[in-house]
Amino acid sequence: MPTLLDFTAGVAIGAGGNTLSGGQIVDAVSSGPPVVVHVNPDTSLALSFSERGRIAHRVLPVQDTEISIIGGVSGLFQEMLVMVQQSAMGNNMVTLPANIVWQRNPPFIDTRSGAVTFFRLWTLDGGNTIYGKSI
């Protein structure tokens, strides 16, 4: 059976046929998931699962915002960490999609000035079913 980590060409080819350079592999192993910051989002905001693995979203609303969840790759475990941080003025309602299957209860998104709320979302089927947990 041929090895999938043949570095003779300076790259590794995964079982799915994707190619990574040695530098990309080192970066992936030695760094955390990317963080996408959404400053002053509109009244609607789509948060996307990453193409592979994990991602974090930091949401800094200045008005009421309705969040939707998009993306995901079928057959891959994907995870999203979401942080909602209220502005100094606070009082920004953030609503989440009703189709998330929550472990226990949906998160209470605090609207007080400077309040921070964290929750995690997971999918195994490309975002068709999304599971969530308050943290």
Could you explain how this protein is built, in words?
This protein is mainly β. The chain has 1 helix and 11 strands. The mean pLDDT is 88.
Distance between the termini: 44 Å
Strand content: 35-45%
Strand arrangement within the widest β-sheet reads 3-5-7-10-11-9
Spans of 5+ residues with little confidence (pLDDT < 50)?
A: none
| Class by alpha and beta content | mainly beta
What sort of overall outline do the alpha carbons produce when their principal axes are compared?
elongated
Radius of gyration: 18 Å
What is the mean predicted local confidence, pLDDT?
Answer: 88
Order of helices and strands: EEHEEEEEEEEE
Quickly describe the structure.
The chain is mainly beta and 135 residues long. The chain has 1 helix and 11 strands.
Layout of secondary structure:
Blueprint (H helix, E strand, L loop, with lengths): L10 E3 L5 E3 H9 L4 E5 L4 E5 L5 E7 L4 E6 L3 E12 L8 E2 L5 E2 L13 E10 L5 E4 L1
Parallel strand pairs: 3-5, 4-6, 5-7, 6-8, 9-11
Antiparallel strand pairs: 1-2, 7-10, 10-11
